[in-house]
């Protein structure tokens, strides 16, 4: 009886020495390939409380932070000046620079001497956190170090209109580009090395390289070949292999066949000393004369007489349309040197583009340090063209009337 009971229990519970059949685990999903970083991508800053944001275009504050946090060996920053504010979007960037220096990344910072004297606090702060600082002094030639760019690990670069200023990351419309193209990054690295040496670099620093750069660099964008050309100004301060920006601008204007759209902060036909300078103005007039539709979008800071003089005359030319773009003041109140469109870019025929740090005044190309990028290819040009259309057709703009008297906006 006991034997029968035991056998019955075994039949119900199963043999303890035989594992119950297991359901096969589902096969893991195939690994998704990691998308390669694009060789070049547009970056913007939309002013807060405006409709000028483009969700598909990353913001400079995020891009700068990612580049700095990802640095492994070196960060070279050449900027006009640094101006921070508590709680602003620049603070995490400065903290990331300090953290990079503390973990052994070599960080070098080059700023303009004249503007360092106006904004010394953040530069001195970084210098106290293992950042090596130099100041570039171009006052003897009536110029400034006006470029705004960064090179990380000699493989990643950023160039754009953004100053290293909390306002440029929150309250000003800006355009830039992140570039991961070796020859292009190498060109900007050469500019930095030359300026670093001229500003009192280390005695044992390596000399600026003179081997030829393969420019323009050729990359694949949107399934087509695009050409990217880094440039700099002024002509007499160019390192070997880096072309001067002005002739490249003139060549693209003179090559325009259908359309030419340009946005800049200011536009002048005289140098700061009052002598005429019409190189770019003449090129735009030539383009309009041969039937190219020319449109300019300039900031309301150009309502000052120094800029208005040339703009009024240009607006009278057939085939040229000029609008002011006016960024409304912040709901928090007036912010000095802010709430303005500061972007500097051009789109030609929807297939060629320029992004730079120069306002369209002669001094920026002939006496001051600036840098720029030329991109020949539809992918960037078409996207930049849509950004221009969003601005030019927005409620923030007003057509320039050459016969109207304008009141300059409050700037400071």
Helix and strand arrangement:
Layout: H1 2-13, E1 40-45, H2 60-69, E2 74-79, E3 82-83, H3 90-102, E4 106-112, H4 113-118, H5 121-127, E5 132-136, E6 149-152, E7 156-160, E8 164-165, E9 172-179, H6 182-198, E10 217-221, E11 224-233, H7 245-254, E12 259-264, H8 279-289, E13 293-299, H9 305-315, E14 320-325, E15 340-341, E16 345-348, E17 352-356, H10 362-366, E18 370-376, H11 378-392, E19 397-399
Parallel strand pairs: 2-4, 3-8, 4-5, 9-15, 12-13, 13-14
Antiparallel strand pairs: 1-9, 2-6, 6-7, 7-9, 10-11, 11-18, 12-16, 14-19, 16-17, 17-18
Walk me through the structure.
By secondary structure, this protein is an alpha/beta fold. The chain has one domain (40-202, 211-399): Endonuclease Chain A (Endonuclease, Chain A), CATH 3.30.870.10. 28% of the residues lie in helices and 24% in strands. It contains eleven helices and 19 strands. It has helices at residues 2-13, 60-69, 90-102, 113-118, 121-127, 182-198, 245-254, 279-289, 305-315, 362-366, 378-392; strands at 40-45, 74-79, 82-83, 106-112, 132-136, 149-152, 156-160, 164-165, 172-179, 217-221, 224-233, 259-264, 293-299, 320-325, 340-341, 345-348, 352-356, 370-376, 397-399. The strands form three sheets. Strands 10-11-18-17-16-12-13-14-19 form a nine-stranded mixed sheet, with helices on both faces. Strands 1, 2, 4, 5, 6, 7, 9 and 15 form an eight-stranded mixed sheet that branches. Helix 2 packs parallel to helix 3. The longest helix has 17 residues, at 182-198. The protein is globular, with a radius of gyration of 27 Å.
